[in-house]
Amino acid sequence: MTEPRTPLVEMRNIRKAFGGVHAVEDVSINLYPGEVVALLGHNGAGKSTLMKMLAGAYPIDSGEVLINGDSAQIRTPVDAQRCGIESIYQTLALADNLDAVANLFLGRELLTRWNTLDDHRMDADARKVFHRLNKNFKNVRTPVRRLSGGQRQVVAISRAIYFNAKILIMDEPTAALGPEETAMVGNLVRQLKAEGVGIFLITHDMPDVFGLSDRLSVMKNGKLVGTYRTTDVAEDEVLGMIIAGKQPEGKAQTHTL
Ligand SMILES: Nc1ncnc2c1ncn2[C@@H]1O[C@H](COP(=O)(O)OP(=O)(O)O)[C@@H](O)[C@H]1O
Ligand SMILES: [Mg+2]
Prior knowledge:
Blueprint (H helix, E strand, L loop, with lengths): L8 E10 L2 E11 L4 E5 L6 H8 L7 E6 L2 E2 L5 H6 L2 E5 L10 H5 L14 H15 L15 H14 L4 E5 L7 H16 L3 E5 L3 H7 L2 E6 L2 E7 L5 H10 L13
Parallel strand pairs: 3-8, 3-9, 6-7, 7-8
Antiparallel strand pairs: 1-2, 1-4, 4-5, 9-10
Helix pairs in contact: 4-5, 5-6
């Protein structure tokens, strides 16, 4: 037996309330390097809130987050970025009037040694990372509001790749995309996984769940219903967890790879 690897992320007994609403109640979840964990549940289940706490967008009411086995104090998005955590949301958080290059470096611009913007290097580096994701992506100097959903998603994912995400949160990344663009995002997930990136994938898409994830965690009304190896459960059992909060009979939960 090999020693169990240290998880990239461990979220332990996490709670978050908004006024009287218990958005996340005592949820524990983890993620290993090169692993995709699908996070499932109806709208309002608490998925985004849980991930926003990991991304430093919301403070945690109680509980603990460990990154590579060490307790981490993630209070702001910058804290999360320092831990190698990057997020991609369905409502792509891009600045519509800026072009793809400017969006890639937004808030993290490269500077020359004279502390001026290093436009030359930003342009060259951006083209490299965009083309790695999509060879046909040429209009990198057009305001992103004029780009397709797939091209916008390339920009969002490039932000994660360029800044060396070790932990990627994808919150419904294909919800606004067509079939071809959805397939592209799937390929990217596989590529990042092969590079050892750990990915939390929030999705409602069952083909994505079964095609991409290693484990799945289901939430309902702020609580964790269960975490299972994806190959251990059938689609109707997953739907039973999502809809009725019912754990599948005779199936063991798993918190390791
Ligand atoms: N910023 C907020 N302020 C108040 N309530 C919120 C906020 N964000 C989420 N909630 C509430 O928390 C619960 C969980 O929401 P959310 O995490 O968005 O669920 P999901 O992503 O699973 O659809 C819902 O009841 C939602 O209305
Ligand atoms: Mg959500």
